[in-house]
C-alpha cells in the first residue's frame, strides 16, 4: 500500500523509533508501513494519523486510484 | 481488540502478532496432516504411542520456532553493527545457559550419569544443545538485523 507516512513523519521531525513509541508498535512495523510492505489495521492507521496530526486521507488515500 | 484466550502468547505489536498467528495456523495444518499420516501408518505398523505424540509435539513446536526465527521479527529494534555485536555475545551466553539447564534437567529426569561414558555423553549433549540454540538465535539475529537495516530511515 502506497502511503505518505514517512513524509508526514519527517514534517513533524520524528524518528521511526519515536513514532513507533508513540503508536505502541515496534520500529520495524513503522519501517514496513513506510515502505508499503505491511498494511496496518485501521486502529493503527488512526493512531499514526493522530500522532502526525493528519487525516487518514492525507496519509493513505491514493490520488487517481 | 480481538478477544481470544491465546492472547497471552501473542506480542502487543500488531505486525508481529499477525505473523505469529499465521505461523500457528500453518503449524496447525502441518499437525493435522501429520496426524492423518500417523493414523494411516498405525493401521499397517505398530506405532509407539509415546514416540508418535512426541513427533507431533516436535512438528508443531519446531515449525513455529524455525519460522519465527527465520522471519527476522525477533529483534525488532536492532539496526546498528554495535548493537548486533552486543546482542551476539548475549545470545552466546544465553545459549550456554539454556544448554546447561537442558542437560541438567534431562539428566535428572532420564538418568543421572554413573560412569565416564555417561559423563561424556552429557557433555556432548550440552555442547550439541547449546550449539543448536546458538545457531537458531544467531540466524534470527542476522535475519532481524538485515530486515531492520533495509527498513531504516534514508535520511
UniProtKB/TrEMBL annotation, chain A:
InterPro entries: Cro/C1-type_HTH, Lambda_DNA-bd_dom_sf. The keyword DNA-binding applies. Keywords: DNA-binding. This is Helix-turn-helix transcriptional regulator. SUPFAM superfamilies: lambda repressor-like DNA-binding domains. It comes from Shouchella miscanthi. Residues 5-59 form the HTH cro/C1-type domain.
UniProtKB/TrEMBL annotation, chain B:
The keyword Membrane applies. This is DUF3278 domain-containing protein. It comes from the Bacteria. It comes from Shouchella hunanensis. Keywords: Membrane, Transmembrane, Transmembrane helix. The chain crosses the membrane at residues 20-44, 50-70, 91-110, 122-142.
Amino acid at each position: 500500500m502506497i502511503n505518505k507516512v514517512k513524509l508526514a513523519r519527517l514534517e513533524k521531525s520524528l524518528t521511526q523509533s519515536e513514532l513507533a513509541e508513540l503508536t505502541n508498535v515496534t520500529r520495524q512495523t513503522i519501517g514496513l508501513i513506510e515502505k508499503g510492505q505491511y498494511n496496518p489495521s485501521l486502529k493503527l492507521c488512526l493512531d499514526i494519523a493522530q500522532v502526525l496530526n493528519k487525516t487518514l486521507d492525507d496519509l493513505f488515500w491514493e490520488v487517481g486510484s | 481488540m480481538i478477544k481470544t484466550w491465546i492472547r497471552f502468547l501473542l506480542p502487543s505489536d500488531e505486525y508481529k502478532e499477525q505473523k505469529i498467528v499465521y505461523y500457528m495456523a500453518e503449524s496447525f495444518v502441518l499437525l493435522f496432516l501429520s496426524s492423518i499420516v500417523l493414523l494411516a501408518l498405525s493401521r499397517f505398523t505398530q506405532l509407539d504411542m509415546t514416540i508418535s505424540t512426541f513427533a507431533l509435539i516436535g512438528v508443531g513446536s519446531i515449525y513455529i520456532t524455525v519460522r519465527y526465527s527465520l522471519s527476522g521479527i525477533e529483534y525488532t529494534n536492532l539496526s546498528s553493527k554495535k548493537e548486533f555485536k552486543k546482542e551476539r555475545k548475549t545470545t552466546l551466553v544465553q545459549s550456554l545457559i539454556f544448554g546447561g539447564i537442558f542437560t541438567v534437567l534431562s539428566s535428572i529426569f532420564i538418568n543421572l550419569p554413573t560412569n565416564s561414558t555417561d559423563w561424556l555423553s552429557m557433555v556432548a549433549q550440552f555442547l550439541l544443545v547449546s550449539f543448536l540454540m546458538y545457531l537458531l538465535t544467531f540466524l534470527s539475529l542476522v535475519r532481524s538485523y538485515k530486515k531492520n537495516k533495509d527498513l531504516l530511515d534514508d535520511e
